[in-house]
Amino acid sequence: MALTRKTMRPNDYALRFGKRDKDGSRALPRIVTRKPRTGDIHPLTRATISNYLLMVPPAYFYGLKAVELRPRKDAVGCPYGLYSPDEKRIWLYSCPSREWRFSKEIWSRHKELLARGAQIVTSDDGSNDVVVEWNDPFDIELQFVNVLLHELGHHYVNQYKSSRGTPATHSRNEAVADVHVTKLWQQILANLDRIKRRRAESGGA
Q1: Which residues contact 200 (CB under 8 A, 6 or more apart)?
Q2: Would residue 186 count as lying in a domain?
Q3: Residue 1, in any domain of the structure
Q4: pTM value?
Q5: HSE-up of 160 (CA within 13 Å, CB side)?
Q6: Whether residue 109 sits in one domain with residue 87
Q7: What is the Cα–Cα distance from 198 to 106, expressed in whole angstroms?
């Protein structure tokens, strides 16, 4: 029987046919850093993205061309990141380093931030915007790890669509990506304490 994506499990296929670096280790997709929007930061760096990718099964980044850190053009979270199936690239957008502002109209789509460490603060400009504040930069990092995992879920679905099919609707596609996020977080959580200790020892760098 021929060894193809249809006859092999995705992870076995990625391990067998994935590219390797000169030292024999798994080759990761290119990580490209663009200058963030003025006043913004990129919560994930090239080094942290590489480290997180190495924690997940290789099937999730097999065939991925690049992860690109880009300046955001719109309000924070509109979007946090995107996956381009045609280019096989993930784009992660910059964000403010501490305070994030949302209009009342879109806040309901971002309430999960409160479970990830953000806190609502009072706006002092008289607007009806919802302003959240991050007190720990590591919480922002984990928020963007969640975004990265979600986009990896989209890539996984796209990469193996010939053997597994694709979700019929946009909402179903998002739901399937979130299922993959849950699976991938299990890999990340197993290493989270070690990551936190290493950050504390290096002064948060």
Answers
A1: none
A2: no
A3: no
A4: 0.87
A5: 22
A6: no
A7: 36
**Residues 118-166: pLDDT tens digits?**
999 977 676 789 999 999 999 999 999 999 999 999 999 998 875 555 6
Nearest CA-CA partner of 152 in 124, 123, 183, 110: 183
Size (the chain), residues? 205
Determine, yes or no, domain membership for 54.
yes
- Taking only the tens place, the pLDDT of each residue in 1-26 is 455 656 667 777 776 767 777 776 77
Domains in the chain, number: 2
Same domain (yes/no): 79, 120? no
Phi and psi for 117 in degrees, rounded to 5?
115, -10
**What per-residue confidence (pLDDT) applies to 120?**
95
Structure tokens at 57: 């099964």
Residue 119 is part of which domain span? 98-140
- Which amino acid makes up residue 51? N
What span, in angstroms and rounded, lies between the C-alpha atoms of 94 and 33? Answer: 10
- Same domain flag for 92 and 114: no
Q: How far apart are CA 27 and CA 39, in angstroms?
A: 33
Q: Which helix (H) or strand (E) holds 32?
A: strand 30-33
- Mind listing the pLDDT tens digit for each residue in 60-94? 999 999 999 999 999 999 999 999 999 999 999 99
Alpha carbon distances (Å) from 51 to 45, 78, 121, 122 = 10, 26, 33, 36
